Amino acid sequence: MIDLKILKTVEALKGLNNDQLAAIQKCSEKMEFNQGQKLFAEGEDSAHLWIVLEGEIELRNDRPEGQPNPVEDPITFISKAELFGWSSFMPPFKYKLSAYGASPKCEVARIEKKRLVKLFENDADMGFELMSHILRVIGTHFYQFRNGIAQRWGHDIMSGW
Amino acid sequence: MIGNDFLQSVGIFKGLDENQLSTVQSCCREEQHKAGTKLFGEGEPASSLYIVKKGQVDLRFDLPGRPTAEKNTISSIPEFKAFGWSSFVAPYKYSLSAYCASQVCELVIVDRQSLTRLFKENHRLGYLVLSNMARVIGKRFQNLEKLATAAPVSAVKVIVHLATCGIVAGARDIMGALMEEINRSDRPDIKVASSGCIGKCPTEPNVTIEIEGEDPVVYQKMDAEKMRQVFHQHVLGGQIQTDYTLVEK
Is B195 helix (H, G, I), strand (E, B) or coil? Predict the structure, then answer.
């Protein structure tokens, strides 16, 4: 069972009351991973949202042959009480990156998206609270990606390529 | 007048009931702009979400000391689609500039503050719209990723001649079929434009295909089915459909 105290520290869940947190707790499954162990792979169906309970998780692209990139090439690290796996809420509902344990012991909560959506449909206050957060994260990633393309294309045009 | 039936056909308002749509209406106003008009500039405070009611809008990056150009376009927004998502994401500044890319653009402008207030008063409405937004942004993200990683392709522009004579002859159905095919295809880079009569009223509806490095091809007496065929065979496959090309007399 996941400790409610930990759920209370998760930024995305801070607006929820005890009953709402308890409902999320019921949809969650506690899992443990070792350093370098894969939680999920880029391109797999993203059916879960994840919370780091202990340790650190690394998100990165896999090499084509399925081997992880060298350790010096991560995309991002996810620390305790942070949520990840946002692609479960947007098409094509597949993970954009692979996730690996990045500390000797990693403890995570895995929340089934389908059950979470059912909760949201029954409790619109909870749905609104969490979707506001999810949209901010998705939107920020979208803009960062789009700005990157604009900068690259703009640079090419200015360089006369 | 912004009707519920229009709002219902916009992805972000999908699934809303009549009452909810009527409430959303109260946050909307309409504007009309001519080709080339700058709707907002990169870096400006993002106070509104926009929906294209008629025409097309290009989202472009601006380059210092240079006028705007089609090649600076990152996304083209067709009818019934929304843009201006920055109004819902910090730091609430538009990240690209928006230009009217058709002869006329009719836009529905949704005030962010009013919509956010509605969401706070009615969390079910807020949940539905935000869930739809996540799905729509996800699809845009996907298209943009394909565009960024795809091998370079020749620039393609499809022009549907939407003068009165063309509309009477069925040009709107052609535009609808074209947009459906583009949405189904993996080619979000294809530009769509509407323009006036080309002086060949008896051959309307006319459609012009412009592919970079090739002569433009004008098709005559088009309908939705022919448009789908031309899109797949000519635009995607490179085979001009000579049975339908305009014959000069």
Answer: strand
Q: What does the alpha-carbon distance between residue A39 and residue A36 come to, in Å, rounded to a whole number?
A: 9
Is the Cβ of B85 closer than 8 Å to some Cβ of chain A? yes
Share of chain B above pLDDT 70, in %: 96
Q: pLDDT (tens digit, 9 = 90+) per residue, B151-163?
A: 556 678 899 888 7
Q: What is the CATH number of domain B156-244?
A: 3.40.30.10
CA–CA distance, A25 with A83 (Å, rounded to integer): 14
Q: Supply the ipTM of this predicted assembly.
A: 0.83
Q: Which of residues 45-64 of B touch A (CB under 8 A)?
A: 61, 63
CB within 8 Å: B130 and A136: no
Contacts of A131 in chain B (CB under 8 A): 126-127, 130-131, 134
CATH code of B4-149, in short, is 2.60.120.10
Domain boundaries, chain A: 4-158
Task: Mark yes or no for CB contact A149/B74 under 8 Å.
Answer: yes
On whether any CB of chain B is under 8 Å from the CB of A144, the answer is no
pLDDT score for B136: 87
Average confidence score pLDDT of chain A:
86
Q: Give the A:B interface size as CB pairs under 8 Å.
A: 101
The DSSP 8-state label assigned to residue B244 in this structure reads G
Phi-psi region of B235 (alpha: psi -120 to 50; beta: other; left: phi over 0): alpha
Indicate the pTM of the whole model.
0.72
Residue of higher predicted confidence among B85 and B151: B85
Check pLDDT > 70 for residue B97.
yes
